[in-house]
Amino acid sequence: MEKELSTLELDLTVRNDYDTFLNEESMFALLLSSTGRDLKPTVHIPFSKQRSSFQTNLNALEVHLDPRVASYIFLRRNDTFIAITFVPYLAPETQRRFLLDNRHEFLRQLGERYFAQSLICKEISEVAYARTWEEREEHIDNQVVPCDTTCVQEKLQDTGPGVQDIGYRRSKCRACDRRMKNKISADAMEALDTLSTPRSFVQLKVEAKTEHLVLISAFTYTHIAISFNITDITAEDVANLLPTSNPSFTFYRHTVSSLLYFIFHSPDSSPVRERMQHTMAIPGLVNMHAEDAGVHVEKKIEIHDPSELVFKEADERVGRFRSVYLRNKYGGTESVYDSLEKDAQFLNDVR
To answer: PROSITE patterns from the xrefs (predicted)?
Structure first.
């Protein structure tokens, strides 16, 4: 028999983990998973690093979010605490119902005075994308959109002293790269942080089985100079570092111009599936993961053999990709294209 609201008692381990989260200022978030009858501590998520961006910390949280598991999340932002009831569509109904029915009771037992806001999210992007947070804040005084059968329609209200209940508000950001971006390993994300360094070099690939972005190699000018016994890095030096049998992504900070190049090397001899996986990963990597690391790509190049690599603006391959076919011609693999909104509507209808 499931616990009734009036007799709900949070587990001691939950309370202890919650107290640790409150007292440890280095903690960004605490994730509690729902069993449908109770809450169980899942993971503490520390701030990525000192002065890291909100999006960078959300990336660390996103790794632990499962679209098939309902969770209760405590998050620290701007010296305040926010309670998030995460009830994804694919999670079991018992888990979702338990969290939705008891979310106010959780706050009451743990201490409402600590929290500024309480909200409901149904998609990972609504939790892990800074743009959706900004969107919610812009409409903080508006009524939430009509809910479906999984939540009660409500206006913004106070659930307790100082707690503003935002409820559920569907994000308008439905057609963004972040929804389709590949997950990235921690060491790969750390490597992207080094790209502000002159002559830096970072190489990634898409792991075929998991479709995660993983690090191949990363080094600064000093390491390359030692390896190659050279005093400068030319296009030929970079070409020598490109894998010849499988697709790869290479970020390179040019020695002379200081421009950051993104090189997509897709050998024609590599498996078609791998080439497609890498092509689809480009927008999320360049426009999301790199930008999250404070890195802005200035030049993009696609090549199919290392000998094709050149660093000249006049070269027609710079900034263009032949991999995507749009409107009767090949165009760039970018985040915006003519049919973006139409494709987004199609995806939404499928969901």
So the answer is: ADF_H
Look up residue 193 and give its two tokens: 């942080």
pLDDT for 217: 84
Helices (H) and strands (E) in the chain, counts: 11, 14
pTM of the model: 0.60
**Cα torsion 46, 48, 51, 57: sign:** negative
Q: How far apart are CA 176 and CA 335, in angstroms?
A: 8
Query: Does residue 216 sit in the same domain as residue 125?
Result: no
d(CA 281, CA 303): 16
Cα distances from 78 to residues 9, 34, 75, 116, 324, in angstroms, run 30, 27, 10, 10, 41
The model's pLDDT over 89-102, given as tens digits with 9 standing for 90+, comes to 999 999 999 999 99
Q: Are residues 138 and 202 in the same domain?
A: no
221-257 burial code (b ≥16 CB/10 A, e <16) = beebbeeeeeeebebebbbebbbeebbbbbbbbbbee
pLDDT tens-digit profile of 48-97?
876 677 888 888 898 899 999 999 999 999 888 999 999 999 999 999 99
Cβ atoms within 10 Å, residue 112? 18
Mean pLDDT on 24-46: 89
Where residue 266 sits, what CATH number does that domain have?
3.40.20.10
Same domain, 187 and 63: no
pLDDT confidence tier of residue 155, bands split at 50, 70 and 90 = very low
Alpha helix ranges (H) inside the chain: 12-23, 54-62, 93-110, 124-128, 130-138, 186-192, 221-228, 235-239, 272-284, 290-292, 340-350
Average pLDDT over residues 240-248: 93
Domain range enclosing 229: 178-308
